[in-house]
Amino acid sequence: MSNLLIIEDDVMLNQGIAFNFQMDGFNITSAFTLEEAREKLDKENIDIIILDCNLPDGSGFDFCKNIRQKYTTPIVFLTACDTELDIITGLRIGADDYITKPFSINVLRERVLTVLRRCGKNSISSNIIKEGEFKIDLDKITVQKNGESIVLAPTEYKLLKKLILSKGEILTRQVLLEELWENEEYVEEHALTVNINRLRNKIEDNPSKPRYIKTVYGIGYAWTGEKY
């Protein structure tokens, strides 16, 4: 399931595009300004972007150039800027496709899907998990919080990744034990508690009052990513 960021200040159009792509199984993140888009791109795992050129707080062209300095996330322009120069400019600065308004939602859908197929796993976002203050690089097997590296043991790393990828779900102790020690014939259940405590000590501002990992007493744990 791909994560789509729609950067479009026309609320009705943004919602209409979102609705159609949700029907295709996309997870949708909407932004109506470039500032909002930057925040969401930094915090969330985005697979592809639909970008307008004219936003209330700046130019989509400038935004595209800035993105290309940091990410390889695919970008599809969707805009009323329809001159030949506009199109050439958009493609030269790093857009993967350029669609002009008025447009067909069916054509937009197919063009987005084509870009995703063409990019495959080359998109940086497919190998990086972003969740709030945290960034997990699956290639380098590293974790950062607010840009600062956190050194985790292998089991702690696997535990954090599993919790974040299952955000909002309650993971039973048995599920976590099987996930973390799948090749072990016997593992003491206490080992999970020890690793949860070690992980909290490394990622929580106040481990005694955890913000991120919630204990569901008698059942297991859940990643909340916020105070509860």
From TrEMBL:
PROSITE patterns: OMPR_PHOB, RESPONSE_REGULATORY. Residues 126-225 form the OmpR/PhoB-type domain. Residues 126-225 bind DNA. Residues 3-116 form the Response regulatory domain. The modification 4-aspartylphosphate is found at D52. SUPFAM superfamilies: CheY-like. Keywords: DNA-binding, Phosphoprotein, Transcription, Transcription regulation. It holds the Pfam family Response_reg. May play the central regulatory role in sporulation. It may be an element of the effector pathway responsible for the activation of sporulation genes in response to nutritional stress. Spo0A may act in concert with spo0H (a sigma factor) to control the expression of some genes that are critical to the sporulation process. This is Stage 0 sporulation protein A homolog. It comes from Clostridium hominis.
